[in-house]
């Protein structure tokens, strides 16, 4: 991700934009390329380049298969992404698991209790 950040033009326009984000470069032990992170919230939140966005959203969304808003908040707490809300909404629209058929419970409207009672009594009980 650090190498992709070095080639990403969005990162440089994002850093030069007038925002509340405070970027800090962190050098990792195994790589010579530094990783750009936001430290304005007290947590290190790395900037995610375009090729890694779907992977990041795919890591956060399956934790609870929540909707777009909860997925957006989960990603926002951990990472910095441009067009975050749009990407999370598109990803959640195409998620298959919540759209799978749920068990169907059928209720018999005429249960046996009301079958033996006179209809006037049943209406009176329901009106109470």
From TrEMBL:
InterPro entries: Integrase_H2C2. It comes from the Eukaryota. Residues 48-96 form the Integrase zinc-binding domain. Pfam families: Integrase_H2C2 (PF17921). This is Integrase zinc-binding domain-containing protein. It comes from Araneus ventricosus (Orbweaver spider).
């Amino acid at each position: 991700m650090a190498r992709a950040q070095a080639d990403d033009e969005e990162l440089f326009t994002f850093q030069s934009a007038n925002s509340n984000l405070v970027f800090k470069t962190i050098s990792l032990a195994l790589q010579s390329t530094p990783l750009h992170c936001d430290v304005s919230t007290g947590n290190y939140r790395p900037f995610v380049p375009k090729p890694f966005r779907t992977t990041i959203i795919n890591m956060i969304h399956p934790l609870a298969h929540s909707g777009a808003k909860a997925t957006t908040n989960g990603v926002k707490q951990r990472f910095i992404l441009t067009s975050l809300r749009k990407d999370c909404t598109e990803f959640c629209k195409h998620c298959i698991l919540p759209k799978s058929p749920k068990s169907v419970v059928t209720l018999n409207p005429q249960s046996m209790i009301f079958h033996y009672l006179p209809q006037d009594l049943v209406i009176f009980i329901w009106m109470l």
